[in-house]
Amino acid sequence: MSIFIQKETKVLIQGITGSEGSFWTKHMIEMGTTVVAGVTPGKAGQMVEGVQVYNSVRDAVKEHDVDATMLFVPPKFTKDAVLEALDAGIKKIVTVADGIPLHETVEIRKKALEAGALVIGGNTSGVITPGEAMMGFFPYWIERVYKPGRIGVMTRSGSLTNEVTAMIVEAGYGVSTLIGIGGDPVPGTRFAEMLPYYEADPDTDAVVIIGELGGTMEEEVAEAMEAGIFTKPVVSFLGGRTAPKGKRMGHAGAIISGGKGSVEGKIEALEKAGGLVADRPSKVGLLLQQLLNS
Amino acid sequence: MKLFEYQAKDVFRENNIKIPQSYLIDSVESLEDGLKEIGVPCALKSQVLRGGRGKAGLIPLVKTNEEARSEVARLLASEHNVSKILVEEMISIEKELYLSITVDAKKATALVIACVEGGVDIETLAVDSPEKIMFEEVDIIAGIQPFQCKNIAYGLSKDKNIVSQLSKMIYNLYQVFDKYDAELVEINPVFITTEGNVIAGDGKLSIDDNSMYRQKKYEMTREYFDSDMEFEAALEGIPYIQFDGDISLMCAGAGLTTTVYDLINYADGSVANYLEFGGPNYRKAEEAMRLCLKNDSKVILIVTFGTIARADVMADGIVAAIKKLQPDRPIITCIRGTNEIEATKTLKAAGLECLYDTEDAVKRAVEISKASTSSNGGAR
User: Fold this and answer.
1) pLDDT for residue B52
2) Per CATH, which fold does B93-214 belong to?
């Protein structure tokens, strides 16, 4: 099974004719993703990698069933593209744009919550179900990183995700679905909001969370565990344990304010809820073995 | 981008928020005009971006012109990077309040935060007595409504005149938050004067970096940065933080760089600089390496695991940078991700030490940094 995206998920691509859009469309299709149509204003009638291009999302959904949309749209235009997708009734949206204005990320999340839709990102690599399909850009061809398996992964980071996922694979596991929540201070969807999907997925045995200092998303995961909303094993890795206070290290969302958002506070909350926290990437696999074999 | 107090207060004035009378100076000479304009007693407020200015002695209150002159000379010569001072009238204060606006990431709203205690550290207060803090969620699309301003104002005062002034201040502060794409706008403290006026005693305005393309009013200049290096890196668009240890980091991705920083500290090593050589900067090997070489570090540690930031492109960039810059210290590489096999070939052909495990690379860099003070080529 896996969550969010499978082989049969019908994916639209907004911004398909751009250099990034067309390059990653090719990889998404090669990996096995079902790409049904693309959108670029003013480019209707063109084909990209055998995919028909439309002027608008409204036009595309008239001709095709669409389950999800992938945005390869610059940060300045991301809000409009998300609103366009929501307006057309699409409930799963992934945006990789790095640099969406803060106030617009708030608007995007608000509109998504109102529509009952999931917007993943921005500032992320996207979502991948190894061996099946992806929305975004992942080096899926590197087997030691993106091997299919039964561990769900959620992350706020890009290259660190490759690093940690490689350790999961090295420990003998693979990935069911990896969700890049993204590094923005206001991501469209938060860690805890994806947990019910992993809970219901018979093909996910445990979840690894790659967190960071700042914000309260890791604390919300601990709350969901305490409340019994999520009952499968959780292993976390958090960067920034030794980060000096007051310096903006890591992503923009990664500012420590008072007691909240500190790595120590997050570790305490997660451990109290029954999770294990690795102090370095190489420990993630060992902690998974500890939880899954007990 | 964090603005200085005087800039925040200029914005406040333009948006009908009352501020004390003040005069901006940048030298002992210009103080004379400031003294003519404002007179004594007055406050000399150093324009630096760090918090806790009062405790650090950066806001002296002076009673005479002589005292003002000697204090200004002291501040400008201090190690705190003071280049401008705001000479501000003394206000007779009845009461101090706290007021700020930021975003609530979970609820997806703007959030007004207010407190009947001002001049305090709000984050400490949030831990110690959270019941004293008021919150009002604002729909960021509709903007703040008059009733919301009144809700907060009534919570802060019982006096009709003060409530009316506070409501206006909250409304105007929200307009600043909106117009300036603020991640935070804060007045701490708000002064209620003995004459019954409501005035912004301090001003903080932090503009979202992702919105700078449409906030062109403020140019990035040296005075916003703690060091020349951080300024230079910012001009290149490279995330950079100065430390004073032995290992220069040149890593890809905020999360991975922060992790490598942790691993070095665990291994008892020390970091000379944090530098993100990834994302949009993966083609900037030369600029990144030049910054690292300006440090007194003993080794440069390059760790990446990129997708779009292709390993082969980074490797080519590193080899070209080495040819051009002739580094005087060893370089350890741990480059993985898209096209990593080609990358390794390139690096090995150039005689570089290639590792594939982040922790091995960290261990090696720490070893080198501790081994000797002389570096004559090292791993090259």
Assistant:
1) 83
2) D-amino Acid Aminotransferase; Chain A, domain 1 (3.30.470)
Phi, psi (rounded to 5 degrees) for A43: -115, 20
The answer to whether the CB atoms of B183 and A139 lie below 8 A apart is no
Q: Look at phi and psi of residue A50 and say left if phi exceeds 0, alpha if psi is from -120 to 50, else beta.
A: left
Percent of chain B with pLDDT over 70: 98
pLDDT in tens, A197-222: 999 999 999 999 999 888 899 999 99
Domain count of the fold of chain A: 2
Find the residue in A nearest to B338 (Cα): A139
Which of B126, B181, B358 lies nearest to residue A101, judging by beta carbons? B181
- Interatomic CA distance for residues A225 and A210, integer angstroms: 16
Q: Does residue B270 sit at the A interface (CB-CB below 8 Å)?
A: no
Within 10 Å of residue A110's Cβ, how many Cβ atoms? 17
Q: In 3D, which of A53, A70, A63 has the Cα closest to residue A9?
A: A70
What CA–CA distance (Å, rounded) separates B214 from A56?
26
pLDDT at B125: 81
pLDDT in tens, A233-286: 999 999 888 988 766 665 544 333 444 678 888 999 999 999 999 999 999 999
Complex confidence, ipTM = 0.93
**CATH number, domain containing residue A76:** 3.40.50.720
Minimal Cα distance from B127: which residue of A? A259
- The CA-CA-CA angle for residues A106, A112, A115, to 5°, reads 145
Lowest mean pLDDT of A254-263, B14-23, B72-81, B251-260, name the range: A254-263
Distances (CA, A) of A111 to A1, A48, A85, A220, A252: 29, 30, 11, 21, 22
Q: Which residues contact A102 (CB under 8 A, 6 or more apart)?
A: A184, A185, A186, B103, B181, B183, B208, B210, B211
